[in-house]
Each structure stands twice: as structure tokens, then as C-alpha cells.
Amino acid sequence: SELPTYEGCEAKDGSYICPLLPQGYRDVINLPPNSTTTVRIPFVNPFITGPFVYHCHILNHEDKGMMNNLKVVNTKGYGGEEVVPQKAQIQLR
């Protein structure tokens, strides 16, 4: 299934770790200032291909690049329409 997994988040000084629950799918991660997280989505179904979007729920962040497209393709030849993602450029304070 194509459900995201989260590796957690930590402040740059190591002082905060997000309490991620083991229940699996979540669509919101609250991040403190100057923290990071890694989201991995295992697209394993060869017929779920094409354009997808990810975004921050804070509109100002979306406007600064934290909203983007990605294209899922199957290397065996199935695939969606061509999507050219733009690189996010943002500095949060």
C-alpha cells in the first residue's frame, strides 16, 4: 500500500523529538522551529502512477515553496502523464 511512514523529527540542537505514533498513516506532522523530518512513501503498486502533490498546511509556507508535485512512474512501462516538479526554496524562521 502507498501509505507514508515517518522517521521522526528532531530539532537541530537535538532537544526535541516528535512523538510519532506507531499506528501508521498520518497526514499532519507538527514540527517545532528549526526541525526536520523525513517522509517516505513506498509506491509499490505498479498501477498507482501519475502526478501527486505534497504541501504544508500553512499557506504562507506553501507560497514559499513547500507545495510541490511529484511523479510516480513504473519502471516496467506503466505511468502517468509527464509532470515536471519545481524545486522548493524556503527558509523558515
Description:
This protein is mainly beta. It folds into 2 domains: 1-42, no CATH class; 45-85, no CATH class. 5% of the residues lie in helices and 27% in strands. The chain has one helix at residues 59-63; strands spanning 5-11, 35-40, 50-55, 67-72. The strands form 2 sheets. A two-stranded antiparallel sheet has the order 1-2. A two-stranded antiparallel sheet has the order 3-4. The chain is elongated.
Q: How would you sum up this structure in a few lines?
A:
The chain has 1 helix and 4 strands.
Q: How many domains make up the 3D coordinates?
A: 2
* Number of DSSP helical runs: 1
Described by strand count, sense and barrel closure, the largest sheet is:
2 strands, antiparallel
Q: Which regions are unreliable across 5 or more consecutive residues at pLDDT < 50?
A: none
Mean pLDDT rating: 65
Radius of gyration in whole Å, from Cα? Answer: 15 Å
Number of strands: 4
SSE inventory with pairings:
Blueprint: E1 5-11, E2 35-40, E3 50-55, H1 59-63, E4 67-72
Antiparallel strand pairs: 1-2, 3-4
Describe the structure using short key phrases.
single chain, 93 residues, mainly beta, 2 domains, two-stranded antiparallel sheet, 1 helix
